[in-house]
């Protein structure tokens, strides 16, 4: 069988890369010629995790053809490889909504409402009776820590907690100590431009007839990040115009307090206010307890804009 590429979403976060590595290695153990690839370079957080566990970053691709693919941590076409409509999708392992997705042939699809794709993969290893290598466990653990803010996000489930404990044991790290190191590594943004920062963890969604770009950055010092708000507004407005989005929403998430400041450009701002129960002043508002794009932003705003 020809090589199969395992791909996470564009602007890959730690789960997109960790899940690609995790699934590719599981497939390899089961006799499949699979390779983890990425649709972008790793973030500082992901790079920290890869270096900590002695892993190389997957090679970056723009097109998957002529290979078949397996998708992890996404299923929406606009978040996937450029030629996704031209290749065969063999598997999808994900923890997001299903949207804008169809295939010509049957496939294996596993989508669960958990905090992280790597929590699903942890169980897939067990179900396949394949041991998880220590370095693979480390990057998968890093993904769970990142996606659940060290198990503090409202997206966290018992499955995530169980998987994190198992993976920490296999990887030989203390869950809390390593988790804090990882999250802090991802908040070092001082020497990066605003346009770079807003693209580190950003996804585009079609909600009704509205194109919405939702980006998120994590920090341990919200005041320092907000001091650059004018830079962020300018970068968001520029990307919105260039890419043709209607709305651009940026979450600035404090990983210690587990709250977010929200910045918005575009319209309809009123829909965001109604969906999230907030009021913007000068394009800024505070979201008490809002930390999850997947659970606390996208479903509510999709319902509002589709109505």
Explain what the structure shows.
The protein is α/β, with parallel strands linked by helices and 307 residues long. Helices cover 39% and strands 21% of the residues. It is built from twelve helices and eleven strands. The chain has helices at residues 14-29, 44-52, 117-127, 134-148, 158-171, 175-185, 194-197, 222-226, 229-243, 269-276, 293-296, 298-306, and strands at 4-10, 34-39, 59-60, 68-72, 89-94, 108-111, 202-207, 210-219, 247-254, 259-266, 284-287. It has a six-stranded parallel sheet. Strands 7-8-9-10-11 form a five-stranded mixed sheet. Pfam families: DHH, DHHA2. InterPro entries: DDH_dom, DHH_sf, DHHA2, DHHA2_dom_sf, Oligoribo/pAp-PDE_c-di-AMP_PDE. Its cofactor is Mn(2+). Its EC number is 3.6.1.1. Residues 179-305 form the DHHA2 domain.
Question: Which features does this protein show?
Answer:
globular; 12 helices; 5-stranded mixed β-sheet; alpha/beta; 307 residues; 6-stranded parallel β-sheet
List the helices and strands and how they pair.
Layout lengths: L3 E7 L3 H16 L4 E6 L4 H9 L6 E2 L7 E5 L16 E6 L13 E4 L5 H11 L6 H15 L9 H14 L3 H11 L8 H4 L4 E6 L2 E10 L2 H5 L2 H15 L3 E8 L4 E8 L2 H8 L7 E4 L5 H4 L1 H9 L1
Parallel strand pairs: 1-2, 1-4, 2-3, 4-5, 5-6, 8-9
Antiparallel strand pairs: 7-8, 9-10, 10-11
Helix pairs in contact: 1-3, 1-4, 2-4, 2-6, 3-4, 3-5, 4-5, 4-6, 10-12
């Amino acid at each position: 069988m020809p090589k199969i590429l395992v791909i996470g979403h564009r602007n890959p976060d730690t789960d997109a890369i960790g899940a690609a590595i995790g699934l590719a290695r599981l497939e390899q153990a089961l006799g499949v010629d699979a390779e983890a690839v990425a649709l972008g370079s790793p973030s500082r957080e992901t790079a920290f995790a890869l270096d900590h566990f002695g892993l190389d970053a997957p090679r970056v691709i723009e097109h998957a053809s002529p290979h078949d693919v397996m998708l992890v941590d996404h299923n929406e076409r606009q978040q996937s490889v450029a030629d996704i409509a031209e290749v065969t999708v063999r598997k999808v392992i994900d923890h997001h909504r299903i949207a804008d997705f169809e295939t010509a042939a049957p496939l294996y699809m596993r989508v669960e409402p958990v905090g992280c794709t790597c929590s699903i993969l942890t169980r897939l290893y067990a179900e396949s009776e394949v041991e998880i290598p220590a370095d693979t466990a480390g990057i998968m653990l890093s993904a769970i820590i990142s996606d659940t803010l060290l198990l503090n996000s409202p997206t966290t489930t018992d499955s995530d907690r169980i998987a994190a404990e198992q993976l920490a044991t296999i990887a030989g790290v203390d869950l809390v100590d390593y988790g804090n190191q990882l999250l802090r590594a991802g908040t070092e943004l001082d020497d990066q431009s605003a346009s770079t920062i807003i693209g580190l963890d950003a996804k585009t969604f079609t909600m009704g007839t509205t194109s919405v770009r939702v980006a998120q950055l994590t920090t341990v010092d919200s005041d320092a990040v907000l001091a650059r708000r004018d830079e962020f507004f300018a970068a968001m407005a520029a990307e919105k115009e260039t890419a043709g989005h209607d709305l651009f929403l940026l979450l600035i998430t404090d990983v210690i307090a587990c709250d977010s400041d929200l910045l918005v450009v575009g319209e309809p701002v009123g829909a965001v206010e109604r969906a999230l129960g907030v009021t913007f002043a000068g394009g800024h508002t505070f979201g008490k307890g809002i930390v999850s794009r997947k659970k606390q932003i996208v479903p509510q705003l999709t319902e509002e804009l589709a109505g």
